[in-house]
Amino acid sequence: MQPTTDMPKFARALLLAASLGLVPVAQAEPATTGQVVSLLRASELRADKLAAAPAVASLSAGAALRLLSVEGGWALVEVQGSATPAQGKAVSGWVRAGSVNWQAGSSVASTLTSGRQASGNIALTLGVRSLPARVNRHALIIGIGRYADPHTPSLPGTKLDKESATQMATAMQVPASNIRYLQDEQATGNAIRQALQELTDRVQDGDRVFIHYSGHGTRYNDPAAGGCVEALLAYEGGPSSVITNHEMADLLKTITNRTDKLFVMYDACHSGGVVQAASSVRTRGFGNNNDEGLLRPKFASISEECGRPVNVKTRNLVVEAATKGALPQDIIHISASQDNEISFDDEQKGGLATQYMRDCMLRDAKDLDNSGAISMDEIRQCAQAKIDKRMANDAHYKPHHLVLNGNAAFVPAWFGQAAVASVAVAAPAAAPVASTPPARPLTGEQALRQMFDQRDAKRRVQVSMGKSRLKIGQDAFDFAVQSDRAGYLYVALAGSDNQSLYMLFPNDLDGNNKLEAGQQLLLPRPSWRVKAAGPAGSDNLLVMVADAPRDLSALAGNKAGPFVVSLNDPKGRAQLGALMTTSQTAGNPNCAGAAARNNDPQCSDAYGAAMASVEEIN
User: Fold this and answer.
1) Strands 242-244 and 64-71
2) Domain residues of the chain, as ranges?
3) What are the tens digits of pLDDT across the range 240-277?
4) Can you name the CATH fold of 137-406?
5) Residues near 41 by Cβ (< 8 Å), separated by ≥ 6?
């Protein structure tokens, strides 16, 4: 179907011929001049943050570098000169942070957080800047590298995980004022419980929450559960220091019921495996051929009978939360390893899971399905490949595997992927580059489902079609919508040509899209009618009821008659997705603080959604 007000040929020509230059929420820009630093000593510019990574170039002491990012003991820099393999063109790569003369640049260098977020810099792979902070985003970051019990091995890398988790939170639009930290002795069991209660008090309906834990996992025997259960180990040790997934689900129940999305990451493992007999590995760590940082298992045994994966009640956080009424659609849970694996802490760069999830979220993840956005599963796949590379051919251990539960299609930030990076990391000339087959184009249904998967499942929306089949050139298109909450109605249509996405409603002829709770609204209204215009095939409809209005003005220059339109391509989908998942009003002064907001739906980005389809026939 192609929406028309008796202008089907004009609309079709417009859709096929137009080159839609919509202004995205996060738009690629030319690289700007960043902080200039210099090298203290001769160094290799490497393609990755690994000592064993291929060298891009050899740099002499005193070489001038433009600083892009500082991450886990490494600095991402851009260099231009005859030493590079690109005949004087600028390339970027990694050098040890300790080899950089920070005095040559500005004191703000230490505040740089990521290639996407740092002031004056842009994303290197995805080609976008960070989106602005949102008052309805929150984060709790917990890291325990030192424990009160001297027999519990230390985890030096957790102090770096704090910075990495902060970068992830910032990429997800959490303002600095909404990030709470608990580190080492601050992170007792009761302090963690109290912080979660305080978070519960702050979070309002439709908010989004990120929780990150880096430290030891453990197991202990719980007769009530009928065996060994998995737990996070707080600072002090003893009975109050263990927090199981069952208890965590209890602590998060109210937050889960309020949030649009709850994203929890555990960089810990719950398997003792073979490390029980290797105390030196636990206390001093071990190296491998792929890097210089010593690795330590992130498991502490507090129960001899439960130190190995036997008779274990392995119920992840999403399962536990679901038993208490939570909807898996609204929860994302990442674990650093499977229940019978060991995950590792790198003393120089932090937990493998955290540093690689950060790298992939901020820069390295690829849009594998050509959808126009990076999903949690694509981030996980990227991070897993990095873990596999780091642990390849290790003499002691195999790679551990990230486990993603809940909404794998969640898009943590709408980063549209640029066709060509503004600054590219040069690959070694001798390294062959494998060609990647182009991704299949998304159907209209797949394009809309990406936005449908970002919905808050606690908001119930129903849509019913007047007819399931429409005769081309004869039958009119009509449907009814009902929502259990008041909000603003938006209807997107993917035409049967699979080339276009229309914002069917509101439109230039009908802008009254306020919907009351329980109200049944029949569309289209008499002022605008839509007939089946072909080609034969399925039209797909996404109906969204948002807590707060969206600003469609960014799309106003691209019209098919009275309807806003976007091409069904990665750019068009990313632009529409970023627009529809961000409320127009959450940045206003009335949403500045918890007291001022007072659960005002105008400060929420959440929306409910439903999908439907109709078939056009000749």
Assistant:
1) unpaired
2) 8-18+441-617, 35-111, 137-406
3) 888 988 899 999 999 999 999 999 999 998 765 544 43
4) Rossmann fold (3.40.50)
5) 61, 99
